[in-house]
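Subject: Protein record for review, amino acid sequence with backbone structure tokens
Why sent: The fold of this protein is of interest and is recorded here as tokens.
Enclosed: The protein record, placed directly beneath this head.
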Amino acid sequence: MAADDERASKPTRFDVLSMVKPPLKSRDLLYAEALHGFAGAARLLEEIELMITEVSAIGCETRRARRLMSDAWEACREGDWPLVSELARQTEDMVAPSIPDLVRSELAKARNMVVEAKMKGVETSRYIVMMKAAMSALHREDIDDALRATKQLMDLLREDASLRTRTASPT
């Protein structure tokens, strides 16, 4: 009887979070807001322009995306909210697929730079932490965070004088 009471008193395990719908991503909210007026459309376009700028800073070609954004801003000035949303989505779809590959290639470059620095005796733990943060964001499919973390890492690696490879100058 004691065993039956013990089994009956234990609660059944189930995942409460699986019963709740996942929250909408902030970008989805921006798209919904863009259909209602200038303020929402402008926020959406500014967010996508920031993504384009970050992709461009790492080295990806963004001319076509910038042209689409120019058309989206024109539609925004004219008050054509559905067209703004559609152009923004086209721009994001054009730029977003290249981001994971771009992040991976930049992280590979960063890894090589960090390995060389480690061989020189430079403290590299903060670079490794930043690389892990970028990879973690990439695995979570949070491309915005992955892109930002990678850009910060690459900027820091380029600025850090101890990691620069010094070439012998001919004299």
Observations:
- The chain has nine helices and no strands.
- The mean pLDDT is 77.
